[in-house]
């Protein structure tokens, strides 16, 4: 079972805006990090699970890691957001490992996440109040 990463969907108003950001990077999306994960080999076939509003809301498959040439690394991702069953997850800085057995399952075809159905303003307010 592959190892995964978790990361906050920083500056995304909702899972829908995160999906739009990813899809606008047609070839591949990438994030910059200072350090190459020590368990990089175990991440082959894994995904980056996105945290929004203290919930895991979706995942993007990891394509690999690449040096930027400036002492940092890119986490290369497929430019898509695969919805998962929302699961509570505390916010953290940077990324953290997520064992495969602890990862939430993908939503099936036709299933809609309750978070996707909420207007961004409501989602933001519920998050601010600590209810999500």
UniProtKB/TrEMBL annotation:
<dbReference type="InterPro" id="IPR008320">
    <property type="entry name" value="UCP032025"/>
</dbReference>
<dbReference type="Pfam" id="PF07370">
    <property type="entry name" value="DUF1489"/>
</dbReference>
<protein>
    <recommendedName>
        <fullName>Lysophospholipase</fullName>
    </recommendedName>
</protein>
